[in-house]
Amino acid sequence: xxxxxxxxxxxxxxxxxxxxxxxxxxxxxxxxxxxxxxxxxxxxxxxxxxxxxxxxxxxxxxxxxxxxxxxxxxxxxxxxxxxxxxxxxxxxxxxxxxxxxxxxxxxxxxxxxxxxxxxxxxxxxxxxxxxxxxxxxxxxxxxxxxxxxxxxxxxxxxxxxxxxxxxxxxxxxxxxxxxxxxxxxxxxxxxxxxxxxxxxxxxxxxxxxxxxxxxxxxxxxxxxxxxxxxxxxxxxxxxxxxxxxxxxxxxxxxxxxxxxxxxxxxxxxxxxxxxxxxxxxxxxxxxxxxxxxxxxxxxxxxxxxxxxxxxxxxxxxxxxxxxxxxxxxxxxxxxxxxxxxxxxxxxxxxxxxxxxxxxxxxxxxxxxxxxxxxxxxxxxxxxxxxxxxxxxxxxxxxxxxxxxxxxxxxxxxxxxxxxxxxxxxxxxxxxxxxxxxxxxxxxxxxxxxxxxxxxxxxxxxxxxxxxxxxxxxxxxxxxxxxxxxxxxxxxxxxxxxxxxxxxxxxxxxxxxxxxxxxxxxxxxxxxxxxxxxxxxxxxxxxxxxxxxxxxxxxxxxxxxxxxxxxxxxxxxxxxxxxxxxxxxxxxxxxxxxxxxxxxxxxxxxxxxxxxxxxxxxxxxxxxxxxxxxxxxxxxxxxxxxxxxxxxxxxxxxxxxxxxxxxxxxxxxxxxxxxxxxxxxxxxxxxxxxxxxxxxxxxxxxxxxxxxxxxxxxxxxxxxxxxx
Length: 723
Known about the structure:
Blueprint: E1 2-9, H1 13-23, E2 27-29, H2 36-39, E3 42-43, H3 50-67, H4 87-126, E4 140-146, H5 148-157, E5 161-168, E6 172-179, H6 187-191, E7 197-200, H7 209-259, E8 266-267, E9 271-278, H8 283-294, E10 298-305, H9 356-360, H10 373-388, H11 391-407, H12 412-434, H13 442-451, H14 468-501, H15 503-524, H16 536-539, H17 556-576, H18 586-592, H19 596-616, E11 618-621, E12 628-631, E13 642-643, E14 646-653, H20 661-698
Antiparallel strand pairs: 1-9, 1-10, 2-9, 3-8, 4-6, 4-7, 5-6, 8-9, 11-12, 11-14, 13-14
Helix pairs in contact: 1-8, 3-4, 3-7, 4-7, 10-12, 10-19, 10-20, 11-12, 14-15, 14-19, 15-17, 19-20
């Protein structure tokens, strides 16, 4: 990125703004007031017409909101002339506001009628005409809801009530009381104080409550009819004027953007200076276009170019005066306005781009950092797919991701859909390699064994005694993956430090950790520690191991050489920053954190196994370490039966499905709900654990973030055109 300065007289500022706006290249730097004392520059003022455009924009957006106009209501781009934003817009505003006010009145009236109907319902329950509940000279009446016995007891005990009568519906009661001579006009109400009795206001009406409700419902229908008419008229306006309002909003937003642009400039009475960042390769286009549009009345200067430097203080500052750049008009070529870092453009496309969401959840990369999006694209779905590893779950995850990706045009949900698709595809792939679909070994039975004639799938999860060694093997694989992944993070950090600060800092700050990480694990994977490391670390990758890579550990001498590298790395780390030596065990703990990959794999497989065991039951063939478990999908075998040439030696559980008709229904319910739970927990366990490894173990090695998105001055037209 290059930081450029655009300088000219105030008279050509509108033309410059117009040209820069059309180019959509300049990420404008806000003027920070630093030139005010030395050069007399002040923050610019909006161009004439800014206030009017802003007011009209507010009006248009208000009309859009009232009419419910959406972006999808536009069918074509159109020109919006100035005269269309005058009287025609005012006429639309007047008509819409009048209808909106009428709609508000009718809605309030409708709400009031509904409240009257609700208030009348208890009197329908009571069953007395409304005119019988008021208007007496010698009787007091209280209507309410509550338990009748406490009410009657309170009236009986009242000294000021000489006689009473209570009329009751199911929940509503009317208490008629004759007060004694000289009693207060609220004597009956006072008698009921303290009783759980919710009093109701008697409506000012006559006749039966049912008739009154019928009148109110008729009134409600009339109001609703009027409201529908108003809504219809507003809808007609939305259909007729929606396209215009969308275009007018865009046109006015552009006008406001242009007229308020000087608020970011440094200006004097006669001149202005605007600064910002553009892609370095577009500088000639930027400067050439301004020269063509405005001529010699404007000067464009490349102040600096964002390149990595080695001084450790000024990351992106390289003067361009020595390489042909012109001298800034204000201060001889140095950075003039705010000391801002260049904006960031994350250049990821296709299937990689959705993973920017995971990066930005931490922070946007700064201009001087590696963008780790491509690494997340390669590792996150792999981690997730490895831990779930089931064809059925993978297909569902992929379908959910496709729905999100195709349903939403842009934004976080679309990106999340892309990430979910990738995670689902890898889950499906690993499901084929494991030979599982919803925890059943049907792919193993019909594909790996049936079609290809293999005795087992390429890899196993390690749940049954016969395959238990795979469970330990996956811990070794997890450690190996951790070593590689953490190494990549340290290598990124090494190159960042090398480019920003030079080779010495790169070796002391990053190379030291690389030596400590690899030296420590060479030592662990060797004969140097005797029998301390578990044996499966040396057998997993042996020539006759589960993954036959021919590696069975380093020799005694190489192991102690690795420990020497670890000590050398610690010394270099202390030379760079002594306080960091307190983290001397980080190479061990960081890598061991990756064993969660194997642990979650076994946990998720066990949950699916438990669901299937409850539903279909499990029987065993073979004994001891040769025992294999099988689901009773067709029917449940019994001890002594033969299964594919092997004797059934045990039945772990008979299965709900095999316990009669009720068991079939209950079993199917358990099957569906159980696998839905496993499917959901796959996101909260495998998904979160994979994200944790990326953020904590990987990002922490090299990534700080803090970058600003490249947001060039201009507007991406969608509803308007100038042609």
